[in-house]
């Protein structure tokens, strides 16, 4: 809710969180609206949503200023009066007091709620949320600040929804992640598993990094629903093979990191076209210092020679984007770091720099194994610069993962 969402200046991370959060309750998201800072538009959206849904979430517009329209709009949409709740003011005053400030008078607006609404405490901010039940519909209003919204949902809203809408059945949701296989091929291989009339249900979500399987099962107990998903995942893995890298929604950096830690192996990375993306993903995992020794971004030929020991003769004969250079980069970083693995990426991310022989999207990835062989892979990634870089980083981590698992 707000002009910043309507114009795209702010991304709607709240909607993504809430749609995922309610899945375990068996609540299927049906539609999403973004309304700007115009009261009549907000009222129109609210009335339309309430006519079609059992639960309506509203985030944003609960601040203390004149353009924070949500309280007033909800009250008008459902023919309620705004009622002042003095008991809501002490937590707001305390919030300012902890910062050594007095509460501005405008913040008193945040103690106004539509008649019949139940307040939702906000321990992380000043704006209390509220729940308004109107017939069969629960309108749940939360602040737009993601940290506050998530904390309030987890502390108060989830239990409310569970008590009101969770019947005799339990829902379980799991994300299975794949990489290296296009969505059309995943669809072909899964075949009848994608029948939406079956239980569990499987939905596909494609991104630059791969294809996710979102599996939702309902049963009389959590164990039963989980068992149904286990059986389906086993079937899906048999059909998709090593393309499956996680059955718990993890990123490749988490999977590869755990494998390195379990095997007590170490890694160093040399990157060119990815500019540090692989290293950034590896080090985003807590505890990665146990297995990650160093990362070097060697963009120029001179740096490849000076920092990684790539022979000048290889660069002259084959160029920076070649299997020979990728091999030398991986072996060089592994040798200088003294690690079990050296991983390298070199390619042409575009949009310029490509030739007929070496087009944009051509990428070489190499994995050097201490006291073992070096493996080099060639990829030709479609898409713009950021897509090529993202897919290159994913492919590099997957090469490491496949080696560690013996795929």
Rounded Rg:
26 Å
The percent range for strand residues is 15-25%
Identify the overall geometry.
elongated
What's the structural domain tally?
A: 3
Say what the CATH topology of the largest domain is: Molybdenum Cofactor Biosythetic Enzyme, Chain A
Molecular structure report:
With 407 residues, this protein is α+β, with helices and mostly antiparallel strands. It has three domains: 3-165, 3-Layer(aba) Sandwich (Molybdenum Cofactor Biosythetic Enzyme, Chain A), CATH 3.40.980; 170-246, Alpha-Beta Plaits, CATH 3.30.70.2860; 252-405, Maf protein (Alpha-Beta Complex). Helices cover 40% and strands 22% of the residues. The chain is built from 14 helices and 15 strands. The strands form four sheets. It has a five-stranded mixed β-sheet with strand order 12-11-13-14-15. A four-stranded mixed β-sheet has the order 1-6-5-4, with helices on both faces. Helix 2 (13-21) runs parallel beside helix 6 (146-165). The protein is elongated, with a radius of gyration of 26 Å. The two termini are 47 Å apart.
């Amino acid at each position: 809710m707000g002009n910043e969402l309507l114009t795209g200046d702010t991304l709607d991370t709240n909607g993504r969180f809430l749609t995922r959060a309610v899945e375990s309750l068996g609540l299927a998201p049906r539609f999403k609206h973004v309304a700007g800072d115009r009261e009549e538009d907000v009222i129109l959206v609210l009335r339309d949503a309430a006519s079609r849904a059992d639960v309506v979430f509203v985030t944003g517009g609960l601040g203390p200023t004149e353009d924070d329209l949500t309280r007033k709009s909800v009250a008008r949409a459902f023919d309620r009066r705004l009622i002042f709740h003095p008991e809501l003011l002490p937590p707001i005053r305390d919030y300012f007091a902890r910062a050594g400030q007095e509460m501005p008078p405008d913040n008193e607006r945040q103690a106004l709620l539509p008649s019949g609404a139940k307040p939702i405490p906000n321990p992380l901010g000043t704006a209390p949320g509220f729940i308004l039940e109107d017939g069969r519909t629960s309108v749940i209003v939360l602040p737009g600040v993601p940290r506050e919204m998530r904390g309030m949902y987890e502390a108060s809203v989830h239990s409310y929804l569970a008590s009101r809408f969770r019947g005799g059945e339990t829902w379980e949701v799991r994300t299975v992640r794949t990489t290296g296989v296009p969505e059309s091929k995943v669809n072909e291989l899964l075949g009848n598993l994608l029948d939406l009339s079956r239980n569990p249900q499987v939905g596909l979500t494609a991104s630059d990094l791969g294809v996710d399987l979102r599996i939702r099962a309902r049963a009389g107990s959590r164990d039963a629903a989980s068992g149904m998903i286990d059986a389906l995942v086993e079937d899906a893995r048999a059909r998709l093979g090593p393309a499956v890298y996680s059955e718990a929604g993890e990123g490749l950096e988490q999977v590869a990191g755990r494998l390195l830690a379990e095997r007590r192996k170490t890694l160093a990375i040399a990157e060119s076209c990815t500019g540090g993306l692989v290293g950034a993903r590896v080090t985003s995992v807590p505890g990665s210092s146990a297995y990650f020794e160093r990362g070097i971004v060697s963009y120029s030929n001179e740096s490849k020679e000076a920092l990684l020991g790539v022979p000048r003769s290889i660069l002259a004969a084959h160029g920076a984007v070649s299997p020979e250079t990728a091999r030398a980069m991986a072996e060089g970083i592994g040798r200088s770091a003294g690690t079990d693995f050296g991983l390298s990426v070199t390619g042409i991310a575009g949009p310029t720099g490509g030739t007929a022989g070496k087009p944009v999207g051509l990428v070489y990835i190499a994995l050097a194994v201490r006291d073992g062989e070096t493996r080099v892979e060639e990829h030709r990634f479609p898409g713009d610069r950021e897509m090529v870089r993202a897919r290159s980083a994913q492919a590099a981590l997957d090469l490491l993962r496949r080696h560690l698992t013996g795929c």
